[in-house]
Specification:
17% strand; globular; 8 strands
Length: 212
């Protein structure tokens, strides 16, 4: 599958590596591809402009800061987003470290800004290393999906499987409004990371068993 990742940071590079390994045709979209091409961490990646990444992808992935994502994605021709699966991984923070979308979510903002795209929020609850190596955790973790379009979530589930997230680990939370929970988890994520001294952890939904 052709995947256009928007962003060239930790998340975009990790996902590009993971999905390329799985056989996908991946490009990274930068606001300044010529300058960024000089960066050591981007050697070996296919770097294009943001609009070109949007045109390339059968699936387009937002991996930019949540406060900037909508403006960055607007560079993509509307026709290149219409009908496409738009996977959103972003979380927005203010300069003071608060959520930039309290009582709302970036996922919803993107869906409202690009109504013809089929937005799926996922991978926002784990760090970039764990995104592409869930098997490195000591036990199975849960990864969440939010979106209004079931077919788009099915495509996204396949891409999660390609990163190593088994079907049983993938939990569909429902419509794009449920992206709020994924994004607001960032507050707990930071607290847990500080408490255990590592960003590389997962969380697992453990339902109650049969009570005798
Ligand atoms: N890091 C994680 O472990 C993690 C986990 C879950 C979710 N997230 C979320 O995923 C998104 C990407 O995270 P990241 O860690 O990859 O971020 P990052 O390292 O800061 O990279 C973000 C990339 O977005 C592009 N960008 C576009 N507009 C920008 C702007 N106004 N300011 C800065 N960069 C801009 C930049 O690429 P160009 O300069 O080439 O355009 C930059 O390399 C964020 O929303 C983050 O909250 C991150």
């Amino acid at each position: 599958m052709r995947i256009g990742l928007v962003g060239t940071g930790n998340v975009a590079r990790a996902l590009a590596t993971g999905w390329s390994r799985a056989g996908h045709d991946v490009v990274l979209g930068s606001r300044s591809p010529k300058e960024r091409a000089e960066a050591a961490e981007l050697k070996g990646f296919t770097l294009v402009g943001v609009a070109e990444a949007g045109a390339h992808g059968e699936v387009v992935v937002n991996a930019t800061p949540g406060t900037a994502s909508v403006d960055v994605l607007k560079v993509i021709d509307a026709a290149d987003l219409a009908g496409k699966v738009l996977v959103d991984i972003g979380v927005g923070f203010t300069e003071g470290g608060d959520l930039s979308h309290p009582n709302y979510s970036l996922g919803e903002e993107i869906q409202a800004a690009f109504p013809e795209a089929r937005v799926v929020k996922t991978l926002a609850t784990v760090d970039a290393v764990v995104m592409t190596s869930p098997e490195s955790l000591e036990g199975p973790a849960t990864i969440f999906l939010s979106g209004d379009d079931d077919a788009a979530k099915t495509v996204t589930k396949g891409l999660l499987t390609d990163l190593g997230w088994p079907d049983a680990s993938q939990l569909d939370l429902g419509g794009i409004g449920t992206a709020r929970g994924q994004e607001h988890f960032a507050l707990l994520f930071v607290g847990v990371a500080q408490a255990i001294g590592s960003y590389e952890f997962g969380i697992r939904v453990v339902p109650q068993g049969t009570v005798a």
